[in-house]
Amino acid sequence: MEIIGYFASVLIGISLGLIGGGGSILTVPVLVYLFGVDPVLATAYSLFIVGSTSLVGALPKYREGMVNLKTAVIFGIPSILAVYATRAWLVPLIPNPVFSVGSFVVSKAMLMMGLFALLMVFASVSMIRDKKGAAADNGDSGPQQFNYPMILLEGAIVGVLTGLVGAGGGFLIIPALVLFSKLPMKQAVGTSLLIIAAKSLFGFLGDLSHYKLDWVLLGSVTVLAIAGIFLGNRLSRKIDGAKLKKAFGWFVLVMGIYILFKELYLSPAGVAAH
């Protein structure tokens, strides 16, 4: 299973390089189901892996003029504050077990994976439909206009979600940048990578005092994911990104439904209740 896990680690980076998101959707399931990492700890690992990989991926995008720094700062500040606060204070406050109904017990790990699976389903719908992103890629989007209240609100919401489930949230960030900042799709992808990197790595700092980390595993997966993002950037010049994004969306949908089923019906609590 670990060999499959290392192969899947490369796919995390390929996904980020090809479509500007999706890597974090793979990271937590890979860590939990292939490497046997505790789900709560896996969300912390995911922040470091996705943050580091996105930072490396953002550098060539910046050199190509595909990163809008002003937008990254406006969106990134509330997002960074929210994710750090969530990891440092909110997640440690969640009780274990969270609650129980009869023989059905919802543990902290089960809650985290359940939230993550719901996020996967939501992300898959966004990737499969992708009407707004496709429309935004048809040439010049006009002068940039900021809807400041919505950008700040979206940044804070994405930060809390990132903190809770360890997902970078590119599928939420990219539509927000297209809609509220009027960025062209390709520039939204590059800017998204920088925002994901900043908030994920700052969120990870909020975890350092709470967990004992396996730096060998963390470093290995991160290096492979970084190798994957270079490969993804190369492939993005040859593969139709719109078709790939839709196919990836269907894959994420199937994975999200499977995780929900596994946590609700195949976990010890689920078996006991059913």
Topology overview:
Elements: H1 2-19, H2 23-34, H3 39-63, H4 69-93, E1 99-101, E2 104-106, H5 108-129, H6 131-136, H7 148-165, H8 170-180, H9 185-205, H10 215-235, H11 241-266, H12 268-273
Antiparallel strand pairs: 1-2
Helix pairs in contact: 1-2, 1-3, 1-10, 2-3, 3-7, 3-9, 3-10, 4-7, 4-9, 5-11, 7-8, 8-9
Mean pLDDT: 80
Number of strands: 2
Q: Main sheet, how many strands, which sense, barrel?
A: 2 strands, antiparallel
Helix fraction? over 70%
User: Which strand order spans the largest sheet, edge to edge or round the barrel?
Assistant: 1-2
Strand percentage lies at: under 5%
* Shape designation: globular
Short summary:
The chain is mainly α and 274 residues long.
Describe this structure in words.
This protein is mainly alpha-helical and 274 residues long. It has one domain (2-273). The protein has helices spanning 2-19, 23-34, 39-63, 69-93, 108-129, 131-136, 148-165, 170-180, 185-205, 215-235, 241-266, 268-273; strands spanning 99-101, 104-106. It has a two-stranded antiparallel sheet with strand order 1-2. Strand 1 (99-101) and strand 2 (104-106) form a beta hairpin. Helix 3 (39-63) crosses helix 7, helix 4 (69-93) packs across helix 7 (148-165) and helix 8 (170-180) crosses helix 9 (185-205).
